[in-house]
Amino acid sequence: MISPSSLSRREFARFILAGSALSLAALDELNAGVYQKITALNQKYLDDEAPDGPYWDGIRALYDFEDGFIMMNNGTLGPMPKTVFNALTKYFSVQVSNPFDSYNHLPAIRESVRTKLAGFINASPDEVALTSNTTEGLNFVINGLDLEEGDEVLTSNFEHPGHLGPWTLKEKRAGIKLKKVDLPITPKSVDEIVGAFAAAITPKTRVIALGHTVFITGLISPLKELSQLAHDKGLLIMADSAHGIGMLDLDMKALGIDFFASSPYKWLGAPTGIGLLYVRKEACDKVLPTVVSSGWESVSTAAKLDPSGQRADAMLFALDEALNFNNRIGKSRIERRIKGLSARLKQELAKIPGVKVHTPTDPYLSAGLTAFSATGIDLGRLVDYLREKYNLVVRTTGSREAGTFGVRVSTPIYISTKEVDMVVEGVRTLVGHKA
To answer: What pLDDT is recorded for position 410?
Structure first.
């Protein structure tokens, strides 16, 4: 009998799908055509850094949007490219046609996906856990850290509830102390951020835990510099980077972060239900798993934090395709595209009287999320207007009390400057009506 472990990934796929209702040939044909298009675009426009044009028009065509629909809120949830959806639906159909393969063969993909995901963020496979989402990954680390009563954890005033909530629970259970570091709404420099955290450290501080891709303002926290600060002081550092993967060209070794959680279904194009948790090798023994099953004591890598029990392995095949899709385009090219679009948006918004851009203009401190407010107009009405006028989706976020309430716009690779200008035109229209 053939052993699945002895087969290549392609041979393995053919093995598990042979004789079932799922046709590998059909999946091959669907996805190969997409990748051939990307390859052709790369060859033709290798050095093309134009903000728009046939290269990015071609990439946009690889998504199945409704006619006229413009998604500029993948900071909440992004679309799947056609290849990812093809893989997801095809491998879910295995359970329909042959459930035996769903539990006996499909899970074998896990380690190859872990390896590919690790390569995508410049980490070791031993440092990658496969979770469901960012919140789950953060909970696993926070619950697993052995902190004592009186130990301090530094957070910021811009934390997402999915990050702050687990720490609040830890505070109640273990008697730790959460200490908030107040950052300005729009920091002007790296030193301004690092200095604020440095000033807050005391002999009782054990962990710095903060948002990397700040959902309220679009700030990209300087993790490399903050990690250096933390390690110089003998502290651990954790980042909530829900938006990071697929938006930024991530390099875990360069960042030096201990714990990093992200959601591939926002910017990378994966389906909901699959998440990344990075645990630096040197910090892995600091965390105990939260959910365990048989054999957990023998696992010493980040995989010990994988959720236990039966999982939807079709998600792993879809994540594999999302990584393929992004790798074909190129991580650095994706980041440049995203930052180029957001720079245009910030520049044009800043020209409108009464508009305040909350996101830093420094490309080191910002990326694909842009937040802004406007005096004298209803920001909720602006969100509705953009949907009614252009079929364009954005959202409000932040707090009126904290002065951060505003509209948040995502600038992913599949939009163009045309859509960016639609947002600007909508703001100008409502501000003009106010006047």
So the answer is: 97
